[in-house]
Amino acid sequence: MSVSYANELSYPQEIAEIRRQLDVDTQMPGDDAANTSTNLMLIPEDGVTYSIEEVRALKLGIENIIETKIQNEQVFMGKHKHATKFWHESLKPYKSQMSGMSLIEPLWGHLRDPYFIHILILYGLSIAVRYLPDVWHEIVSGRLDALRSLIDFYLNVVDALVPGNALERITGESFLIEQSGSIFAPI
After folding, report:
1. Other C-beta atoms lying within 10 Å of the C-beta of residue 7
2. CA 40/CA 52 separation, integer angstroms
3. Chain segment 7-44, per-residue pLDDT in tens
4. Residue-wise over 108-140: b if at least 16 C-beta within 10 A, else e?
């Protein structure tokens, strides 16, 4: 599920009506006042629908979540209170070349770090390969082979993201590595 700041420039009438529903005295992002609140819009991925209870159960730090439709698309709106200058400094959304701005549902109530989540998933896959050979055989060439394409896709994502993520953690610097000639490469 992606997240964005709900501004009136995008959908002026819809957002104004939703703000009335939320009954919010929201300050604009960047105001210096402490305890600022910002209206956020949660947008499900294409073709995926959620119930309001499922979204509230995620415990993302967003209050007063309501479900609505904007241009016939399901969206959720809510208020995020934060003591920081900008909402994204306290929520810490995830964004990479494989994903738009998203919020990660915390594992075990607190783990949101994508690097550690990738390590846990890779560890789980290694356990399946080493200690569950019958299950792994079914995934590779048996009745569970539908999982194989999902695992292959995931491993491609890991190949693209985790080495750069590890390098950033080690050096403390951000890196942008793109193939020369691609649309994302520097000019």
Report:
1. 14
2. 15
3. 444 555 555 565 555 554 444 444 444 557 777 888 88
4. eeeebbbeeebeeeeeebeeeeeeeeeebeebe
Sign of CA dihedral 26, 30, 33, 36: positive
Q: Which residue has the higher pLDDT, 62 or 17?
A: 62
CA distance 3 to 147: 28
- Tens digit of each residue's pLDDT (9 = 90 or more) over 120-136: 999 999 999 999 999 99
Contact 178, 185 (CB under 8 A): yes
The pLDDT assigned to 123 comes to 95
Q: Which residue has the higher pLDDT, 184 or 150?
A: 150
Residue tagged 């208020």 (tokens)? 79
- CA–CA separation, 116 vs 83, rounded Å? 27
CA dist list (Å): 144 to 35, 136, 138, 158, 165: 50, 9, 5, 22, 31
Question: What are the φ and ψ backbone dihedral angles of 175, each rounded to 5 degrees?
Answer: -130, 145
Phi, psi of 168, deg, nearest 5 = -65, -40
SS3 13: helix
Alpha-carbon gap, residue 149 to 58, rounded angstroms: 28
- Give dist(CA 124, CA 147) in Å, integer: 14
117: its two tokens: 């989540």
